[in-house]
Amino acid sequence: AALFTETPHDVTAQAGEDVEMACSFRGSGSPSYSLEIQWWYVRNHKDWTDKQTWASSQVRPGSALRSAQVVKVVGSNISHKLRLSRVKPTDEGTYECRVIDSSAGPARQHKVKAYLRVEGAAGAAHPQD
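The chain above was modelled as a monomer; its predicted structure follows.
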């Protein structure tokens, strides 16, 4: 069966640090088909998946998605590390690894998410840097 062999984890980082999120997927068909990994970013509340009432003026879950990085391979395994260098508080949010699996007929999407929390202002904790 098709499955994720490595999924990204929630991360808490200090501002200015580098962050990596890993995502690996193994397809279920013959080795000669295409897999695609897409990283998406949701600038939103950590609890956006929880049952909340969203005012019409608020951004609803998912509508703030923008494609971060895309990788395509032909084969039954795909892996990609999303690298974020010198993270800022504005990088905080949910990062979603989507795999598009076109092995068996219509393409299917598989998704896993992780949340990045960024603490502190850059340089505040280490004035000498």
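Residues 122 and 128 are 11 Å apart (CA to CA).
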